[in-house]
Amino acid sequence: MTDPSAISGLPLPEQRQVAIGHDAARAAILGQLAEHRLPGAIMLHGPQGIGKATLAFELAAAILMATGDEDPLRVREQIAALSHPNLSVLRRRAKDSKSFYSVIRVEDVRELRESLQHTRGRAGHRIAVLDAIDDCNPNAANALLKTLEEPPADTTFFLISHRPGQLLPTIRSRCHNLGLRALSDDLLAQVVTASMPELDSASLTRAVQLAGGRPRRAFETLALAEDSPVGALIQWLQRPDEMPIAAELKLADALGSDPQGPDMSFAREILNDWLADEIRAAAMQQGLRWRLASATELWEKAGALLGEADSVNLDMKQTLVVIFDSIRKHCALSASPAEPA
Asked: Which of 27, 85, 133, 329 keeps 20 to 30 A from 178, CA to CA?
């Protein structure tokens, strides 16, 4: 196991090495490469599952080929196998044969830093890909900051971030920041059909509609069974305050029965998106700061509960019951025209 976020049957970002879309970000880095002024650290940030890591490995291949002396095909093969001596990749490490650590630990960052202090294995630039920096715990983030403050010569870090606002400002300030957007439906369909050329049009249309411009979500949609509870969750989130409590209990039971399964993984993304949208909507409402405060508190509560369930193996069903109940109460409160006393 090399990637804790891998989807069974699909190539990993280092194996793809060709990202569809994101032309402006690609052109910016290739332009800097051509002018021999690559930044020491590049942060690719945007919604999860839009191809940031794939783009990072595409750019890594371009940099290694431009600054080294090896055959391009050989470079791509080594990147795909994560065996190129000038490439380092930091992800959450495997805990055992069946699971991964929930965070990138400080010892993982220190190991990366030590490896970059050694003599490089090949001519040319060195690349370090952190996928994703959001997974670093506080100690790991501080250790990484020290490395970015005094980076090794001729080395570029690619930091993948789904939530840059939650990172240390000092880390963001030391990076060349490139924001990536979700893909258009046409580009998303290209990504899906490139991996699944035999996919029927009905399944492709459904996946694109539910994906919201995120290839990863499209693939997760296609992996779901027709009777997946994810569809019921999407429907429930449209009007949580009007749905019977029995509906949220049924949802929690169905989704929480397999905390590591594709249904739950997809459900967590949908919940995160819904909560983020709720905060944005509340922030745009003039004179209703209490509604924004409620949405922000809901976001923090849901994140803390899910994180605690992951770290100490709490009952995911009960965790979801609490989150769904909080969402329902928030929506009922927000539906009231009067500000609460």
From this structure: 85
Q: Are residues 175 and 94 in the same domain?
A: yes
Pair 13, 131: CB distance under 8 Å: yes
Residue 27 and residue 143 in one domain: yes
Whether the link from the prior residue into 132 is cis, omega within 30° of 0, is yes
Q: What is the pLDDT of residues 6-55, one digit of tens each?
A: 887 889 999 999 999 999 999 999 999 999 999 999 999 998 899 999 99
Report how many domains make up the chain: 2
Distance CA 177, CA 41 (A): 9
Ranges under pLDDT 70 in the chain: 1-2, 287-288, 335-341
Give the residue numbers spanning the domain of 259: 224-334
Q: Which of 179, 213, 233 represents a domain boundary (last residue)? A: 179
Cβ(254)–Cβ(232) below 8 Å: yes
Q: How far apart, in whole angstroms, are the C-alpha atoms of residue 264 and residue 262?
A: 6
DSSP 235-289: HHHHSGGGS-HHHHHHHHHHHHTSTTSHHHHHHHHHHHHHHHHHHHHHHTSTT-H
CB 327 within 8 A of CB 298: yes
- Domain end (from 150, 179, 208): 179
The CA distance from 242 to 257, in Å, is: 25
Tokens representing 195 are 């991996």
Could you give the angle at which helices 245-256 and 229-238 cross, rounded to 10 degrees? 150
Q: Is the pTM of this model over 0.90?
A: no
Please provide residue 199's backbone torsions phi and psi, each rounded to the nearest 5 degrees: -65, 135
Provide the H-helix boundaries in the chain: 13-16, 23-34, 52-67, 72-80, 106-116, 138-149, 169-173, 185-195, 201-211, 215-223, 229-238, 245-256, 262-283, 289-312, 316-334
What gap in Å lies between CA 19 and CA 216, rounded to an integer? 13
**Strands 126-131 and 155-161: what pairing?**
parallel
